[in-house]
Write a structure and sequence with these properties.
By secondary structure, the protein is mainly α. 75% of the residues lie in helices and 3% in strands. Helix 1 runs antiparallel to helix 2, helix 2 packs across helix 5 and helix 3 packs antiparallel against helix 4.
C-alpha cells in the first residue's frame, strides 16, 4: 500500500509541475503574440510617417515633427512602452531579467552580464534607502550642516543616475530589444 501512496504522490507532483510549466508556456505564447501585434502597429506607424514625409518632400513643403508627426511619434512611444512591459512579463515567467546595458536575457541571479560584462545592480534603490535612513537620523547640532551636505550630494547622485538611465529613448530600447528577440527566434528555428 505504501508503494502506491508514494507513486500517487509522485504522479501528483509531476502533474503539478507539468501543469505549471504548460501554463507558463501558454502565457508566454500569448504575450509574444501580443508583442507581434504591437510591432505590426508600430511598423504601420513608421510607414504612415514615411508617407507624410515623402508627400511633404514632393510638394516641397517644410516638415515639422511637432506639427506633422507628433501624434504618430506619441503612439509609437506608447506601443514601445507596452512592448517593453510585455517583454518584462515574458522574462518574469522564465525567471530571467534583461541586462541593463545590452538588453540580453540573463538569469535573475547574475551579478554580471555574460554577454557584455556589465555589472547588474540596483544601486539607485539602495541609495534611496540610504538617503531615507540618513534623513531620519538624529545628529548633533554641530554635525547638522555636514549631514545636509551629504544628503544633497546623495540626492544629486541619485538624480544623475536616473537621468543617465532615461537617456536611451524608448524607441532605441525597443529596436534593440526587437533585434535581440528576432535573433533568439532565429536561433530557436
Amino acid at each position: 500500500m505504501e508503494f502506491f501512496d508514494k507513486l500517487g504522490k509522485k504522479a501528483s507532483e509531476a502533474y503539478k509541475v507539468t501543469a505549471d510549466k504548460t501554463g507558463k508556456i501558454a502565457k508566454e505564447t500569448k504575450l509574444k503574440f501580443k508583442i507581434g501585434e504591437l510591432r505590426t502597429q508600430i511598423n504601420d506607424l513608421y510607414e504612415e510617417i514615411g508617407k507624410k514625409v515623402y508627400e511633404k518632400h514632393v510638394r516641397e513643403e517644410e516638415i515639422s515633427i511637432k506639427k506633422d508627426l507628433e501624434e504618430q511619434c506619441t503612439k509609437i512611444d506608447v506601443l514601445s512602452d507596452e512592448i517593453d512591459d510585455l517583454l518584462k512579463q515574458c522574462l518574469a515567467l522564465k525567471d530571467k531579467k534583461q541586462c541593463q546595458k545590452c538588453y540580453k536575457e540573463i538569469d535573475k541571479e547574475d551579478k554580471f552580464c555574460p554577454n557584455c560584462g556589465e555589472r547588474q545592480n540596483n544601486e539607485p534603490a539602495k541609495e534611496v534607502e540610504i538617503l531615507d535612513n540618513l534623513k531620519n537620523t538624529q545628529v548633533k547640532e554641530d554635525k547638522e550642516a555636514q549631514k545636509q551636505i551629504v544628503i544633497e550630494e546623495l540626492e544629486q547622485d541619485i538624480q544623475e543616475k536616473e537621468e543617465n538611465q532615461e537617456e536611451k529613448s524608448n524607441l532605441e530600447k525597443t529596436v534593440e530589444i526587437e533585434s535581440n528577440v528576432e535573433s533568439e527566434e532565429n536561433e530557436e528555428e
